[in-house]
Design brief:
Layout (H helix, E strand, L loop, with lengths): L1 E6 L5 H14 L4 E5 L6 H4 L15 H8 L16 H4 L2 E3 L2 E5 L13 H16 L3 E5 L9 H4 L4 E6 L3 H16 L5 E8 L2 H10 L4 E7 L2 H8 L9 H17 L1
Parallel strand pairs: 1-5, 1-6, 2-4, 2-5, 6-7, 7-8
Antiparallel strand pairs: 3-4
Helix pairs in contact: 1-10, 3-5
The structure holds adenosine-5'-triphosphate and magnesium ion (MG).
Magnesium ion binds next to helix 1.
Length: 252
């Protein structure tokens, strides 16, 4: 299963990615958890305290040069070898390998630089060829998914919270996804406090398939402060993560 998770800033993408990764890992699946947010913090979402050994792939200058054969001529390979990168540049927790991609450079005039070529090839490798389950934590867009890659994503999950802005973002992301022929879009609602929150989202997002309703829970924030994964707080939050995981399998 290949899932990409996106949504407006702060809605709970990293919390959801980490929770699903831990749950599937504990069910015995091998999971590649990919932090594709330039402001990376999936490691802490997974409760990994020591992040000193994690290096973002986009910062691996020597590797990028070696693989893309970028030189003074300005030419470089668009299909560099990447299949060994997940093993070499990831850290493990349980059955999860965490890899941090780092930022995609936004050059002017549609420039493609060696860093982007490598990241693009890597994301394609992860989504199209890996046997493990892959869960991507993205920013509020789908920049990492190219045309060929997007169609191999089983689900794009947009996280929303009860509020107009994250709903607007959901529609914008769906439009971007549609442009890449990625139509398998699901929504997970997060930070639900009242029945009114749920009604608001249900009516604003009636065009979307909503596969989960995560409650607002102060313990999620307390867990974060203690460097514990939100998934481990138990209670209704954990129950709903389990429901979402089942729904994802069923929809597949
Ligand atoms: N269900 C919830 N109840 C209470 N707090 C939550 C819940 N889900 C997430 N949070 C809190 O909201 C904040 C944002 O969550 P998270 O980092 O997962 O969002 P994000 O979408 O990944 O953010 P960013 O866009 O910055 O990457 C965190 O402090 C997290 O602990
Ligand atoms: Mg995040």
């Amino acid at each position: 299963m290949k899932i990409a998770i996106t949504g407006k800033g702060g809605v709970g993408k990293t919390t959801l990615v980490a929770s699903l990764a831990l749950l599937y890992s504990r069910q015995g699946y091998k999971v590649l958890a990919i932090d594709a947010d330039p402001d990376a913090n999936l490691a802490s979402g997974l409760g990994i305290a020591d992040t000193s050994s994690i290096r973002a792939v986009s910062e691996l200058k020597d590797l990028i040069l070696e693989r893309t054969k970028a030189g003074p001529s300005g030419f470089f390979k668009l299909n560099p070898r990447v299949d060994d990168i997940p093993e070499r540049f990831s850290i493990r927790k349980e059955n999860i390998r965490l890899m941090v991609l780092g930022g995609i450079k936004k050059g002017g005039g549609g420039c493609i630089c060696p860093e982007n070529a490598l990241l693009k090839a890597l994301v394609q490798h992860l989504i199209v060829y890996r046997k493990e389950w892959v869960i991507l934590d993205m920013e509020a867009g789908i920049e990492h998914l190219g045309r060929g890659t997007a169609q191999s994503v089983d689900y794009l999950i947009i996280v929303v919270e009860p509020g107009k802005r994250s709903i607007e973002t959901a529609y914008r992301i769906r439009k971007l996804a549609g442009d890449l022929n990625l139509n398998k879009v699901l929504v997970v609602a997060n930070k639900i406090r009242t029945p009114r929150d749920k009604e608001l989202l249900q009516s604003a997002l009636h065009e979307f398939r909503i596969v989960g309703w995560l409650p607002y829970d102060d313990q999620v924030i307390e867990a974060e402060q203690e460097n514990k994964p939100a998934y481990e707080i138990g209670g209704p939050f954990q129950d709903e993560i389990e429901e979402i995981s089942k729904a994802l399998l069923n929809v597949l």
